[in-house]
Amino acid sequence: MGSVTLNNIRKSYGAVEVLHGIDLQVDDGEFTVLVGPSGCGKSTLLRAIAGLETISDGQISLDNEVINHLPPKRRDIAMVFQNYALYPHMTVAKNMGFSLRLAKESKSEIDRKVRAAAGILDLVPLLQRYPKQLSGGQRQRVAMGRAIVRDPEVFLFDEPLSNLDAKLRVQMRSEIKELHQRLGTTTVYVTHDQIEAMTMADKIVVMRGGHVEQMGSPLQLYDRPVNVFVAGFIGSPAMNFIDATVQNGTVITPSGAILGPAPDSLPDGSAVTAGIRPEDIFLSDSGAETTVGLIEPTGAETQLTLRMDGASLVMTTRDRVTLSPGDAVHIRVTEGKLRLFDTQSEAAIW
Amino acid sequence: MNETARPYYWAFISLCGAVIAVYILFPIFWLFLASFKTRDQLAQLPIAFWPEEPTLQAYRDLFDSGSQSSQLLNWPTLISNSFTVAVTSTIIVVILGTFAGYAFARLKFPGRDLILGGLLVSRMFQGAALLLPTYRLMNTLGLQDSLLGLILLYSAFGLPFATWIIASSLREIPVELEESAMMDGASRLQAMFLVVLPLATPALITAAMWHFVGAWSEFAFASILLESSANKTVTIGLASFVELFTLEFQKVGAAATLVAMPIMVVFFFGQRYFTRGLLAGAVKG
Ligand SMILES: Nc1ncnc2c1ncn2[C@@H]1O[C@H](COP(=O)(O)OP(=O)(O)OP(=O)(O)O)[C@@H](O)[C@H]1O
Ligand SMILES: [Mg+2]
């Protein structure tokens, strides 16, 4: 078992509070991803769970046992660092067996476990090498091997893929996910890459400025973001935001183009921020008029940048496009896909 | 610098280096050669550079209990005293310097950088100015004319630099390595001994070498603190020896060579680490 519960976690450096009361539940076996812009406190939170950082207030529990005051070595949590932190003076085998050696396991037992973990990660031929003799991806796998060899309750990852090139990153992403499916160990994974978050997570926790903005499954966050920040952060290309007002039960742009129906609860004249995902816009014979700006085919789909009311609007379509820049086109929003946010508070209305 | 100028530049640098080396090393080498000559050969004119019939007589004279020189100065005692002082204070300095250096490199406490800088500055006051106060301090403590006093004194003098050099090398070691070790189940002390210190070996060796050489060849403080002949160290022995045997230069040469030997051995085995350790704070990589 390995469920992690965070209760009102606060952390201050001197007078500056960087975590403002984080509540979070990570269920046993769950893959949770912490995501958010740089400096929002992801690493700090992860390190607090690891025990590498003290917290100013709150409670960290592992399987309902408060572990606030336990040193890292007594938490039964393994961590993979961004720069891997492999011990340069030890071979791959020694690196992986280090925790077992500290736990005073027998030589044969260490050897057996290291070989088993190396087998899972395709590291057997590399066991006698030193870290400096490995490629980036191999180092990454050794760092993971060092974590799994111990069979801990929880894995923590802090941006483990950020030092790899794009192709390797995609490959390692699947490897980590597969590993998780195979071992079922509770995982907390930090990244600022929302695609990583979307593809890997059972549960995403979006953070900003030391607060949790929203948590939920990837599709919950995608379909029902609670505010403009989450809506804009999750999804690529990002959601479009348009200033609009409510009139006669419809949402219209300043130039009068109709985007879709408004909920009854909104009185006429309310100012709202309309949010539309790029794939929820389609070309039609009638609807809001726009001008084609950029056309970017990626093969399977095409991304169009449209100009409307002086703002840019990105749409994607799987249809082949025969337009050219400067053409006037009409667009509509897929029914039920228009999101509305309060212009002042940026909270989701609908 | 353009490509064609490069070889000339390096040739020039190497030449300068060679000239400086010869300039510094010639007198030492001369003394070394003299130790294999006879008294007669040293007296002859014109001066011969190489020994005609190399002999170890001068060395034998140092240790033959019957010889005049060994009756005046007991070299085995001098050497053993110097080793005791240099080795013991080196051990003290490296152990304390490691812990202090670790604290300066890893822990946060008020005034940390100021104190670390102050340690280095304190080394600049060393020398003649401290002789008298040190003498009186040692007398008050009852540590005059004792090897223990000298060991404590050398350790105190050597600790700042050792701390500084170890601290700067530990700062270069990513803190994640230690954190990783702690996640792997190590205590802070285990992380330090199993992960950090093996990586800091060049700095530890440098600190040890630096201190050993300094302690082995220290003269001023040893000469005012040590009185009885049973407690003297090699540098004092060498100084009296030069006075006693000015006319038997081969013996002076032999004694000087003997005294220089441990330093050469230390450098021979440690020079690899020495440059690396000294550069640790300066160069990344
Ligand atoms: N040792 C420290 N002393 C003071 N402030 C710190 C310290 N470590 C982090 N901070 C501050 O805490 C905040 C959160 O930092 P943290 O490293 O957790 O961000 P992050 O979300 O991991 O960012 P990134 O994506 O860039 O890694 C930042 O504003 C940072 O400046
Ligand atoms: Mg971070």
Please tally the helical runs of chain A, counting DSSP H or I stretches of 4 or more residues.
8
Largest sheet of chain A: 6 strands, mixed
What strand order characterises the main sheet of chain A? 6-7-8-3-9-10
CATH topology of the largest domain in chain A: Rossmann fold
Q: Determine the CATH superfamily of the largest domain in chain A.
A: P-loop containing nucleotide triphosphate hydrolases
What's the total count of β strands of chain B? Answer: 0
Q: What order do the helices and strands of chain A follow?
A: EEEHEEEHHHEHEHEEHHEEEEEEEEEE
Number of domains of chain A: 2
Main beta sheet of chain B: strand number and arrangement? none
CATH-level-4 superfamily name of the largest domain in chain B: MetI-like
Helical content class of chain B: over 70%
CATH architecture title of the largest domain in chain A: 3-Layer(aba) Sandwich
Report the uncertain regions of chain A. none
Global shape of chain B: globular
Class computed from helices, strands and strand pairing of chain B: mainly alpha
Q: Could you tell me how far the N terminus lies from the C terminus of chain A, measured between alpha carbons in angstroms?
A: 38 Å
Give a written overview of the molecule.
The complex is a heterodimer of chains A (350) and B (285). With 350 residues, chain A is of the alpha+beta class. Chain A is 24% helix and 34% strand. A six-stranded mixed β-sheet of chain A has the order 6-7-8-3-9-10, with helices on both faces. A five-stranded antiparallel β-sheet of chain A has the order 13-12-11-14-20. In chain A, strands 15-19-16-17-18 form a five-stranded antiparallel β-sheet, with no helix packed on it. Chain A starts with a strand and ends in an 8-residue tail after the last strand. Chain B has 285 residues and is an all-alpha fold. Chain B has two domains: 7-55, no CATH class; 69-283, MetI-like (MetI-like fold, Orthogonal Bundle). Chain B has helices at 5-34, 39-43, 57-63, 68-72, 75-106, 112-122, 128-140, 147-171, 175-183, 188-199, 201-217, 220-225, 234-244, 249-279. In chain B, helix 3 (57-63) crosses helix 14 (249-279). Chain A binds chain B through residues 50-52, 71-73, 77-79, 81-83, 85, 87-89, 98-99, 102-103, 146, 150, and chain B through 174, 176-177, 179-187, 190, 194-195, 198-199. The site of adenosine-5'-triphosphate has 11 residues of chain A, from helix 1.
